[in-house]
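To assess whether ligand presence alters the predicted conformation, the chain was also submitted together with flavin-adenine dinucleotide. Input:
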Amino acid sequence: MNRLSADVVVVGSGIAGLSAALRAKSETQVVIVTKGKLEEGNTRYAQGGIAAAWFPDDSPTLHESDTSEAGDGLCDPAALRIMCEEAASRIADLLSYGVPFDQEGPGFARGLEAAHSVARILHAGGDSTGAFIESALVRAVHDATIPCRERSFVTDLIVSKGRVVGLRLLDEDGAPTEVSANAVVLASGGAGQVFLHTTNPTVATGDGVAAAHRAGAEIADMEFFQFHPTALAMPGTAPFLISEAVRGEGAFLLDRDGRHFLLDVHPQAELAPRDVLARAIVAQVASQDGEPVVLDVTHLGSTRLRSRFPRIDAHCRALGLDWAREPIPVTPAAHYSMGGIVTDTFGRTSLRGLYACGEVACTGVHGANRLASNSLLEGIVFGVRVGASLSKGDKAWDKSDTLVGSLRATLPPVAPGLPGFETGALLDPALEPGSERSPATSLREAIRTLTWAKVGLIRDGSGLSEAAARLAAWEATLPEPTGISDLEDANLLRVARLVTEAALLREESRGAHFRSDFPMSSPAWERHIVFEPPTAPNPAASADKTESRLAVP
Ligand SMILES: Cc1cc2nc3c(=O)[nH]c(=O)nc-3n(C[C@H](O)[C@H](O)[C@H](O)COP(=O)(O)OP(=O)(O)OC[C@H]3O[C@@H](n4cnc5c(N)ncnc54)[C@H](O)[C@@H]3O)c2cc1C
């Protein structure tokens, strides 16, 4: 076993981790560890841009109210205010790191996206905002000589006396290594790979949430997983995002008869909230025997499409699609996890010594549904706040005002007698849309197929119960891991269980969570579901903030 030590270890090299490291570096010794290349993660794929009240006809208050509206009653007011108020300063930071936001005339170009009441999205390289931000931050990290360990896979946190004191990882040669640290910052991103169809890259396997749950940190809002309505639907290729900004520029969705079907669905049509659009597309596809709906942007013309969306344009053309001449097939895909490790507004978690920021965290800013282009913003605002907090020393977290009334849950024990997963096991045909009864060749495929079918866009009690039982049985019979892929599978399983159990508990529909057996939202559910540690809670995570306690049956 190799041993290392550092003041602070930051796990993850997306916008959140790099921002935290850059802010903390001035006062403390920081090391970044990341499981792939430094640039890999959701950040570099972000297309549409970053939201901020930057222009004179906008204000943090307006941004706050749009975000809160999308969040459907569950946004954390304190965190939300901070995010919107600090947005302009963080955009200034990005400019100082050299991010070349697109210009229009004398000022910045401004994009409009769904559910924003004004155009406030700053973008770079047309539709390559994330790539420009990521490379600017990576440059800044190198300039600041912050040590980075690439291809280092964090497996677990080390907890001693209720405090995180380091982590375990497999280094680039696969050698087990223990890193002791005064503080660990989890900035390990999302978990889109838990679903069969996702816009997320392969690194997004929910490792941070799973490790934090095993270590005893509180996890909340896991039932709220956002499905993006428009990913390119090309058989045999991973879903490629067609940014919301394309709809913001005037694209519209057509059914197989060329009808603009969203006009019957929502007054804002293509600019309605993502969950509304995604479900409308699923319903439309079902009513046309599985034929995909298409996105028509032909009226913008090839010159505009190539200059405004160069990356999407190139991708379509590489697949032989000319979207300037004909509409392209699109489908919803899992995109963003609103839930995660519960943090206060300085990224402190319920476990002392553990901080979280970015998509892995649940600050509560997104509530039940994220407003487009708010996640890069959340990553940098709270990444910087974590960095600042680290330099101020170790204080206990402060979530006292926001978790009042939350429903406390624990993962249930496994029901006896259910079969574990066996390679080649047949999946229920209902789990594989449009296919014959087919064998699952891997546990990962089985997990992802099951969640897509039973825990996806449209859920119900019986499907969720079935998924919950299967996932629990698979987790109980997991073989000893023999490598990183097995460890990721275990993490995907844990995340899938948290999403499923929370979705089963929440007997209503709200934001991104839709239950066909409870299609309305209920005032009684205007609260969070918080998972407590599987075993004895740590002393820092006091339970006296709760009003009710429910163990999942
Ligand atoms: C296609 C796409 C388009 C998007 N468009 C937008 C947009 O226009 N605007 C917007 O605001 N948001 C957008 N998003 C969402 C946004 O990109 C992400 O939410 C955000 O970038 C997350 O940043 P992060 O730093 O939290 O995580 P990430 O950027 O995902 O970084 C996570 C890091 O953690 C590392 N890691 C993970 N597990 C481990 C482990 N076990 N050990 C070590 N390291 C680990 C990863 O390798 C990675 O470096 C988009 C997302 C996608 C996928």
